[in-house]
Amino acid sequence: MTIIKKGEKAPLFNIKDQNAKDVNLEDFKGKKVILSSHPLAFTAVCTDQMRSLERNFDRIQEKGETVVIGLSIDPQPSKKAWASAINIDKVRLASDFFPLGKVAKAYGIFNEENSASKRANIIIDEEGIVKWSKEYPQTELPDIEEVIKNL
């Protein structure tokens, strides 16, 4: 399965974030969305990826109101503990735990080999259309400048 492509309609989803609040794509109509997928919480590159989004949150907002979502298959309580441990306040850490990887599968970013999300960034425009997408090697930290440039 390949990552969702520019111009495709973003599949709808409704999952929970680290605070057990709904993360429903339909609620974000009129805003941009960065869906930043990472394999697993509490791992080095994933931690750096989420911290990079958190550190650059205000710069991201300068490109227009944007919802920033870190997506992985970790259960919601794990996402809550991780957010606290790495000081994530602005980025929503969404749990794609049950059914396992449903959102990742819909976006073509589920790794069947290890039953986890792939590392990827997907930008969805205000109308729910994919504006940009890129998959990264599991060990590579996504370039935040590239993500911001593509907003």
TrEMBL record:
Keyword Kinase: no
Coiled-coil residue spans: none
Active-site residues, as the UniProt record annotates them: C46 (cysteine sulfenic acid (-soh) intermediate)
Alphabetical UniProt keywords: Antioxidant, Oxidoreductase, Peroxidase, Redox-active center
Domain Thioredoxin: 4-151
InterPro entries named among the record's database cross-references: AhpC/TSA, Peroxiredoxin_AhpC-typ, Thioredoxin-like_sf, Thioredoxin_domain, Tpx_Peroxidase_subfamily
Protein name from the UniProt record: Redoxin domain-containing protein
Pfam families listed in its UniProt record: AhpC-TSA
Keyword check for Oxidoreductase: yes
Listed GO MF terms: peroxidase activity
PANTHER family given in the database record: THIOL PEROXIDASE
SUPFAM superfamilies for this protein: Thioredoxin-like
